[in-house]
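Hey, quick one: can you model this chain's 3D structure?
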Amino acid sequence: MADTGDISIGTFIRYNGELCQVIEWQHRTPGNLRAFYQGKMRSLRTGKLMENRFRSGEGMEIVWVEYKMLQYIYAEDNNIVVMDPESFEQIYLPKEMMGDGLQYLKEGMEVKVWFESDQPISAEPPASVELEVTYTEPGVKGDTATNTLKPATVETGAQVRVPLFINVGDMIRIDTRTGAYTDRVKK
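Sure thing. Here's the predicted structure for all 187 residues.
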């Protein structure tokens, strides 16, 4: 069993019976008091953030988690289907595991899936995706000076706010974590 000194950001631990990922981890020594660790964790089951203090040297259960890059195939009912490109094994994941990034996925994109003893526990879309704009109001020449945004629909059906100079057929890069337009992709 590990202790608090072995924990770092990104480590997966079992805390109060739930699988959590450590987001922040700080060692504090307040004046003449005993040292402690301040930790912020995200529950993989519920997505909630938890914060707690741990005594220095306290025992912790580290969960060994591995990840694989899998290929997104399609969505079916409340699941998404991903495939291992090496073994061609198909795995069904709940849509909630992918979060809001699911609306930016198209067939063939790679997603990162974490496993605990062959059981999928978490999934993450690529950090950014390049998608074609299928509908937006036409841009007017000279509308590039201001930082005004307009709605646009991309090929996956997702709505994104884009600058006025973006037109139908343009390829744009979108940050899947925030859903924000990043830049226009040159062909």
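One thing worth noting: Residues 128-185 form a domain with the OB fold (Dihydrolipoamide Acetyltransferase, E2P) fold (CATH 2.40.50.140).
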